[in-house]
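Dear Dr. K.,

Following up on our conversation at the group meeting, I've run the structure prediction for AGAP002217-PA-like protein from Anopheles sinensis. I'm pasting the input sequence below exactly as I used it, so you can double-check it against your construct before we proceed with anything downstream. Let me know if the numbering doesn't match what you have in your notebook.
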Amino acid sequence: MLKILRNGPVPRSKPLKQVRFGGDGSSPSQARVVVAGAGLLGNSVAYHLADNGWSNVVVLDQSKVGSGTSHFGSGTIGLFKPTPERNIVVESVKLYHKLQQQGHEIGLRRCGSLNLAQTHDRMIALQRRAAYILPTGMQCELVDSETVKKLHPFLHTEDLQGAVYVPDDCIADPAAVVQVLADEAKRMGVKYFEGCEVKYIKTKNGRVDAVETDVGTISCEYFVNCSGMWARELGLKCKPPVRIPAYPAQHYYALTPNIDLPTDDDNLLPCVRDYDSNLYVRQLDQSLLIGWFEKEAKPAFEETKDIPKEWQSHLHQDARHCAPLWEKAVDRLPVLRDMSMPTVRNSPDNFTPDGRLIFGESAEVKNYFVACGMNGNPLQGSGGVGKALAEWIISGKPTIDMLPFNVQRFLDLHNNRQYLQQRIREVVGRQYAILYPNQSEYKFSRKLRCSPLYSVLEARGAVFGTKMGYERALYFDADYRRGDPLPSLPEGSFYKPKFFHNMEKEYQACAQHVGIIDISSFSKIEIKPGVQSEMASGGNPVLNYLQKMCANDVNITVGHIVHTGMLNDRGGYENDCMLIRQSDDSYFMISPSSQQTRIYEWMSRNLPTDGSVMLNDVTSMYTVINVVGPKSTPLMSELSNSDVRLAPFTYKKLNIGYASDVMIMSFTHTGMPGYCLYVPSEYALHVYDRLMTVGRDYGARDVGTLTQRFLRIDKFIPFWGDELTSMTTPFEAGVFYSVRLDKKENFIGRQALERQKRDGLKKRLVLFHVEDIDIEKDVWPWGGEPLYRNSEFCGTVTSAGYGFASEKLVCLGYISRPESNAQLPITTEFIMDKDAVYHIDIAGKRFRLAQHIHPKAALACAIEREHRSKSYRPTVVKVKKQYQKTSRN
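The predicted structure tokens came back this morning:
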């Protein structure tokens, strides 16, 4: 029988000091930065700010330093992670080593780790990760079950396929780190106030102005919400409210009685992550600490309105929930069978809707920063997060790629408490699940944002995934018939997808007939004159604003469309979009689905202060239907009773069936011929019905977004978030046509691009065909795989898929020169050198690659086949000569 304990309150070394801000002068009434929460994250932020000379910092905690859940963590620090997370953990390790070397005893010890695989697919997942980690210089080794047994004699290993051993993983004492960071921050001038509850964040002109507490008010320039489980609720105590989607799940761990274990550094047992049993194990003195990331977790505090301050007394015992978890631990560690009854502790931790950290500047209030949602292990990320956030505050911009962690990746729906309570049931277990690329969808908190076509598409065999909470058809089950059970996504695979035959049929429709794709999730923003606009004066504030924001020349003819990026000062992307000019002073913007919050905030903060330009998010007002294929023009002409032959990148409004004012645009996001229909949502069902009814004569077929994704990759069209990020420029991505350095108006990022054009590129996006792979038997590339040029590491795959036109597996990836001559620019000649031999490492096996830097070259083999078969010929994008010259610099 298990004994379940609540975590008791943190013992106090001394009573809390009562303070009053702005009173007798002993407590500050003003600070440059106020941090709420004195746990690992809050103390790390304060430490890094002070370490950079910002000492006018105040840290507040409603209880005392470390009184939340930070110090209850496992104390494990794992480096065997996806690249964005690993970069954060590396900075944490550097900080903890520094503190230890300065004489602070934080229990930092190198013990290594074993990452176990019970199944073939788990072994592939570990091999894939090891392949892209090894080129970074981090040590990791694939080992067999016998080696696992030697490294950790207590483990049962007969059921293992193998493991990855990471010798540099380590452990530390979270409680000690919390206190040392606070002590060091205090030494550098940071002021701490315990027993001080933040009540409200006051704003002025859209930015932080002051922090109201139960003992007074502090004026400040910056506020940092590091309040852990309370971060979401504190975010609501502001006008406007700040969305911080994080919620605590109950997190269970057990501590065994003492075992006769060696405790010297040379003989510490390695940490164990048994992903397929959803458990981890580490040595803690002479005991074993065992914890779980179970497949279906339990939300904490469901019965309370808010997260209670005295949270320990609200944690319930649940032996039934823990019993099967303990049985898995016993199976892996047979020594537990002979032990007395273990003590299982329940300590909640904050989880986010997508299982990734949350930090950055809020979308709602300027200078309101957030750091929370550590998803079960606050120690390993806090050092890196604190450093990145402090650098952002000091420099005014991120110093690392923040896109995966940015708080602005969420919408209001993600901050709904009921949504979060359901979603985190699944998020906890996904920390250890195999997340098959493009094939691992959430099961909880679904069917929230739906296109008007959702039910119709479901009845036609659609299998759905989600993007920004939006249900999107991934593909359509060609074998589904009405009356059958609704199809669902099969178990994922690293090989050829089990639903690939459906995608082949969808491609044939797009290539030879008509494919119909619902892409309603795209973000849509209107840019129009504001109430203060003075067109009579001869100016055009909207045009002036967009010329400043956009790298391309957006002064296009009314009715035309331009593809452009919105850049930051480094020349990196803040947005990739299409702009449709609807009148002299109004534009309609289309952006990636995940950009709905982030780009609206970016554009809002750059609006003219005189109110002459306004933005309107109209994402939900339009249903977007992509009509793709060589027969799309005659189909649209018949539906509209007009000659629909638009010039490329133009648009007009048409009546389709009984529906009026449907915007028809002559692009498809796929590089294939066709049209995008922006349909007022009340007309969506009617327009779709007419498309499919009349479309029968044209071979129309439903197509999913996965097929669209593969079409884009095959046409060398980069993706937002994969190829296009705040750290990549249009020149590096090869989209030279989207930049006009010769336009008279200045734009954000222009100087950076001019320098890059003058000095040359350090990396360049390249398309690769995998030449010697068996698509039926070999593991496919899915993204993240390392690339080699003449056996030297040169880059990483960012996107991958199957090229239906080329009939090859296709990868996109940035390559750079090797470290030996990294100072030299990367040129076309270097990339295309006939003596250069490229390979890709897929789960430890290397395959030969053929490289291309232009769509025309990448599709040459497909065009050649088209001449033979007289089937559809893909559109080739022509690059202007002035930019071709730039690409050779």
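Two things stood out to me. The two ends are 71 Å apart (CA to CA). Residues 4-17, 861-889 have pLDDT under 50 and may be disordered.

Best regards,
J.T.
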